[in-house]
Amino acid sequence: MSPTAPTASDVLEGTGPTAPRPGGRLPLVRIALRQYWIPLVILAAVFAQTAAVVAYHYGGWADAVALRAHVGSHAYHFGRYADDAHNKTAKLISDNASVVFRPALYAAALAGLLTAREWESRRVTLALTQSLTPQRWFTARWATLATLCTLLTAPLVVLYQRSATHAYRLDLLVHGADQQTAYFTVGPVTLAYVVLGVAAGAFTGTVLRRSWLAVVAAPALTWLLVAVLVRSRLVLLADFPLFSKVHGFHPGGVLGLQFDDLLPQDSYLVNSLDSGDYWGYQIASGVLVLALAALLAVATLRVLRRRTA
């Protein structure tokens, strides 16, 4: 009798001839990709639309250069023209709002939803009956989701930062807080925020085990953790040369914070930076965010171990 082809349920439950072997990670990644492809395609479509807008605005810097050459630098910065510094900066800040923190919140909501669904659909029970641990099952899924969300966000970050750097170096932006915000807030730390979002989604999905609760709680937890990092100014400990440059500390507002769209921000710190501080500030901030994501992942695995003991 010829062997029959395995069904999707056979592969998922580990009963078919192509079931993942104990300790194998690649089959687990393939299963995750098969189950996650619809929400990831939707996320990719949203990011593609944002990328198209950023690319379109990037092409408009040539008009700004032409206008400045025609009317002069003073009129370009303080006059009122369709392609003047104010209008161009407003468009760049709008692009910044779409890139700086929203991908992290999307990743958090998606991770929270998918993790909670694992409990609601009882796939965890299936994992317990197989020869692989729930920790390995979930870790493979979270790592896959974090990798894919980061890969989807990376082109947005590169495209936006290319546009912002081009405008910053050619002095095409208004001088002041908007210029500093547009240039310094997007970069490697943006990708680290996405990883933190996935870690927050994994944690809330594991603790709450309810999809609708996790979808709300995961972005909220991501925002709160970033707010604590920003307000505490731990980045100054990781990038200590900034100590001598930063003056002032905003006392009021929500937790004493300002905001770049949805991203908590310390305007006194950002406005103290110059172009040479970009990579130091971004890398130091990114390391802190990734360290926080790692702590959250450890806490999640401990909760998972207790739940499935």
Task: Give the SSE layout.
Layout: H1 8-13, H2 26-59, H3 61-71, H4 73-78, H5 85-99, H6 102-120, H7 123-129, H8 134-169, H9 177-184, H10 188-208, H11 211-232, H12 235-238, E1 258-260, E2 263-265, H13 267-270, H14 278-307
Antiparallel strand pairs: 1-2
Helix pairs in contact: 2-5, 2-6, 2-8, 5-8, 5-9, 6-8, 6-10, 6-11, 8-10, 10-11, 10-14
Largest sheet: 2 strands, antiparallel
Strand content: under 5%
Compressed to H and E, one letter per element, the order equals HHHHHHHHHHHHEEHH
Identify the overall geometry: elongated
Classification by helices and strands: mainly alpha
Parts with pLDDT < 50 across at least 5 consecutive residues = 1-23
Number of strands: 2
Mean pLDDT: 86
Number of structural units classed as domains: 1
Task: Give the count of helical stretches.
Answer: 14
Order of strands across the main sheet: 1-2
- Intertermini distance: 42 Å
Overall helicity? over 70%
Provide the gyration radius in Å: 23 Å
Structural key phrases:
309 residues, mainly alpha, two-stranded antiparallel ribbon, 14 helices, 2% strand, elongated, disordered N terminus, transmembrane, ABC transporter permease, membrane, transmembrane helix
Gist of the model:
The chain is mostly helical and 309 residues long.
What does this entry look like structurally?
This protein has 309 residues and is an all-alpha fold. The chain has one domain (27-307). Helices cover 72% and strands 2% of the residues. It has a two-stranded antiparallel ribbon with strand order 1-2. The longest helix is centred in the middle third of the chain and has 36 residues, at 134-169. It starts with 7 loop residues before the first helix and ends with a helix. The chain crosses the membrane at residues 36-58, 142-160, 181-205, 211-230, 279-304. It comes from Streptomyces adustus. This is ABC transporter permease. Keywords: Membrane, Transmembrane, Transmembrane helix.
